[in-house]
Amino acid sequence: MQQLAPPLAGATVTVMLNKKLPTFPSPGDLPRYYVKRTFHVPLGAEHLDTAIAWQSPFFGNAVTADLGLIDPDGHDMGYTIPQGASSGYGHFDVNHPTPGTWTAIIWTSAVSQTYVGPVQFSWSAERYVKTGSVSPASFNLAPGATQWITARFSMRVSPVTVASPSVSRMPAPTSPRSRSHCVRSFRSDPTADFSTAH
After folding, report:
1. What's the whole-model pTM score?
2. Where are the alpha helices (DSSP H) in the chain?
3. N or C: which end of the chain has fewer CB within 10 A?
4. Are residues 116 and 151 in the same domain?
5. Is there a single domain that holds both residue 147 and residue 83?
6. Segment (H or E) for 65
7. Which domain holds residue 36?
8. What pLDDT, on the 0 to 100 scale, is given for residue 83?
9. What is the C-alpha to C-alpha distance for residues 63 and 68, in angstroms, rounded to an integer?
10. Spatial CA neighbour of 33 closest among 112, 114, 87
């Protein structure tokens, strides 16, 4: 079991999308204005988080911004697809990012009209740290079968006293192969044993 450690590096900046920026072609000949920002992912980073947020109206036409990432070798690593045209938020992360200078491209995604205004761009680079163990670490799961797994990890003692262990169960997926890290039970002692069918 792993979790993200505190960031090795990161920043939050605000960029402005406006109709004086350069554009690139898009379906329907809709103008997509864009801005670029570079940032440096340090050596040793194992995970890269990026996100954008923009001012989205509650009513009226949908306006959307998108974020794309180019790695130091010039590879297109992907882009955000916000859930909902006016969600106001987009997120994209990369496992084992190449160290070096990355390029973020933020552009107007012409859904029904062009977004003009501020976009907050944030990024952080982290390492993974071990938080416990899962047994078995992997297994084959036949359709309709069930497999118990046990996760062990330490957690802070809550000031609230729990009188007895609380356990919940969930059915196993029916896919032919599954790897699980989901946990569903806990105890009140500092070292908790977690078990679930998944």
Report:
1. 0.70
2. none
3. N
4. no
5. no
6. strand 64-70
7. 2-128
8. 63
9. 17
10. 114
> Any idea of the CA torsion for 94, 95, 100, 102, to the nearest 10 degrees?
0
Report how many domains make up the chain. Answer: 2
The SS3 of residue 28 is helix
Same domain, 147 and 108: no
- Residue 39's CATH number: 2.60.120.380
* Model pLDDT for residues 107-162, shown as the tens digit of each residue: 987 655 678 899 999 999 999 998 888 888 888 888 988 989 888 887 766 655 44
Which strands, in side-by-side order, build the sheet including 100-109?
Answer: 23-24, 32-41, 100-109, 64-70, 76-79
Q: What is the pLDDT of residues 64-80, one digit of tens each?
A: 889 999 999 999 999 98
Q: Which backbone phi and psi does 27 adopt, to 5 degrees?
A: -55, 140
Look at the alpha carbons of 13, 18, 21, 23 in this order and tell me if their dihedral is positive or negative: positive
